[in-house]
Design a protein that fits this description.
- By secondary structure, the protein is an alpha+beta fold.
- It starts with 10 loop residues before the first helix and ends in a 17-residue tail after the last strand.
- It is built from 9 helices and 7 strands.
- This is Helix-turn-helix transcriptional regulator.
């Protein structure tokens, strides 16, 4: 029997942890000093920048390293090699911190639209290209998840359990309404979805449909089922459920 997919790190939780690390004043000021320096900074320099002891600075710097905001190595500043142990130096990582509650994924939407523009085919209009790009990306994400976790055959219940984990990471706030139906309580693309519901909700639906296909979840489909304040898509078997009309599909956010 195939094992359940392993739990993955929560990006939103990691971002909140990073922000928490920066809540201490001296730590935040040292981090700002190191970012502005544009070079590796020693403990002594970091300590002097905020007027604290070298030992206390080392404590704060190690916290920033643990949070993934700084990286550390041993190096002689200026490249001049001296006798003895090289000092520990710190420089910023490429980490970018964004915390929004509820979670928003505007960068994913922008990336999909960019893909659509760059790959628009002859005979496609902009909207058709956007839907295709969203579905292709969703399928790629699903295929990658299946390759990584190797879950075996996925029926509706196990398939939705697997979907919950990824959709939670993407900020959809999934809630299991029934064993075979998953409601998405948050729209990661709000408020842009409210400005262009046909386009954004359509891309969202295409992305999630592609994801189900790539993950090879049997008997589950993505259905446009907007509710005020929630994602416009629901995942389920569709048994006993009517597809909403075109007018209803613009009511979600």
């Amino acid at each position: 029997m195939a094992s359940d997919p392993p739990a993955q790190a929560d990006p939103a939780g990691s971002a909140i942890d990073s922000v928490s690390v920066l809540s201490e004043d001296s730590r935040r000021r040292m981090f700002a000093f190191i970012r502005r320096a544009r070079r590796a900074v020693t403990r002594d320099e970091a300590a002097a920048s905020v007027g604290i002891s070298r030992k206390l600075a080392a404590f704060h710097l190690d916290k920033l390293v643990d949070a993934g905001l700084l990286r550390a190595r041993y190096e002689t500043p200026g490249g001049t090699r001296k006798v003895g142990r090289q000092p520990k130096v710190y420089e910023p990582t490429d980490a970018q911190i964004t915390v929004t509650i509820p979670d928003r994924r505007h960068e994913l939407l922008a990336d999909l639209l960019l893909d659509a523009v760059l790959t628009e085919r002859t005979g496609e209009n902009a909207t058709q290209a956007a839907m295709r790009a969203a579905q292709e990306r969703g399928r790629q994400v699903g295929e990658a998840a299946r390759q990584e976790t190797r879950p075996g055959r996925l029926g509706p219940e196990r398939g939705l359990t697997t979907c919950e984990r990824l959709l939670d990471q993407y900020g959809y706030e999934p809630v299991r309404e029934t064993p075979t139906r998953l409601r998405l309580r948050n729209c990661p693309f709000h408020p842009l979805a409210a400005k262009a519901p046909d386009l954004v909700c359509g891309m969202n639906h295409a992305f999630l449909s592609g994801y189900l296909g790539g993950l090879e979840v049997n008997g589950v489909r993505a259905v446009l089922a907007p509710e005020p304040g929630e994602c416009c898509v629901r995942l389920g078997t569709g048994e006993g459920e009517a597809e909403p009309s075109a007018d209803e599909t613009t009511g979600g956010r």
